[in-house]
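Appendix B, Record 12. Input sequence as logged:
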Amino acid sequence: MENRGFTLVELMIAIAVIAILAAIAYPSYEQYVLRTHRAAARSCLVELAQWMERYYSSHMTYAGAALPSTACQADLAARYTFGLDGSPTSAAYRLKAQPIGTQMRDSCGALTIDQRDQRTPVTAGCWN
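Logged structural output:
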């Protein structure tokens, strides 16, 4: 009679291999998720900047502009807060995406864009 199945030692080795693979893969996955949400926040900031330019075209000033509620802001509400960084003037504004919650682990931190399309931070990978 032949016994079939796994011994306890074989099962423990398989569990150890799976644990090692998970320990290697999970941090990479977390970084991927942070980068993905950062890319979505960049797109949302560009969308809001385009809205500000449309506002300027209609009013010939940025002063008095209030950001609309957009779908991208709602989608990222658990990870970023979007808003004007200070009050817009007649000729200038700065938009800011401030990370919140788990997104605060992102090394890029807050993202900003202004009327001259100047983007911060300028660290490689944050805006490209």
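The first helix runs from residue 8 to 59.
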